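Sequence and fold
=================
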Amino acid sequence: MYFPSTILTRLFLAVALTQSILALGLEAYVFVTVERDLDPTAVGITEGHTVPSYFSLFIFAFVYELVLVYDALKLSSMIQLVGLCIYNALLLMYAAVQPSSVKKALDLLARTFDMDVTPLLKPGRHTWERISPALTAVIVDQAVATAALFVLTYKLRSEFAWVVYKVLNADLSMRRRLLNFQIYMALIKFTFFFLVGFLVQIVSLIPDPRHDPELPLTVVGIFVALAVMCLGIYCAMTEKKAGTVVVIVAYVGAGIYLSYKLSVLYSDDNYPLITFNAVALAMVICNIVMAMVCMANFGKGLSTYTIPQKKLPQEDIHLHNTQTYMYGAGVRTSRLDLGD
């Protein structure tokens, strides 16, 4: 089992883990506090799902981020680390709009009455005043962690380096193909998050899940997204054209679905979800383009560097006598001479 062996990789993992624990703890406090102060009938309106929607998204986002961090460090993938920094910055933006969205929802719930008698938000609880510091703390936690991850990624470039230059030397065309492959691998993993993250929020907004056919369809969509991600990675690594075509068709279908949902959500003025939908749609389009680019490179020798090889013992990366092997979406290095 892999475990980070250098100070910087351990720091990167520690920052991501600390950020996730703090943010999820704060979000859990907000969720429990609001749910206790809401009348049970609040689930019947959209505003009653605002906090559960954020909470469910952040649970998935931070758990998945930890998986991607471990994967990126294990593969020594610089591109994936950069993607994680951007991913974290997007989560920071989402956390920044959370307070205004939650306050707007609570204000509306406080003015809405059940049977014209009981307000949906219990009066006298000072709900907003109790959760506001926690929501601010989430933003601070995200901002500090994002800045730290950017700095650590910048420093880690000297450890991970662009090993591809040492492996392929002056073969510019092969370097370009390998770079396209690594970008595609990272895009597949991040597209999965935005697709599933969007579907998770859709599920949390369903007023009556027991009688709404969209719930089982959305759950099936989550498993389909997972299958497409796995198929996409496997087919790109082994250069399977037929499988890659299936993946492209699946992403086209996802793009059509997201475009339809975007038009529906725009009329509802659900701007946080609209933003997430738009990002997911953009990621799907980028994935389609990069899948086509990578498929055009099949049969040109790239599989020599992308098909998993026998693992070598990891040595001190600052020693001379470079020994390098690549697998999956990243690079594993042992004995990397940074001065060459």
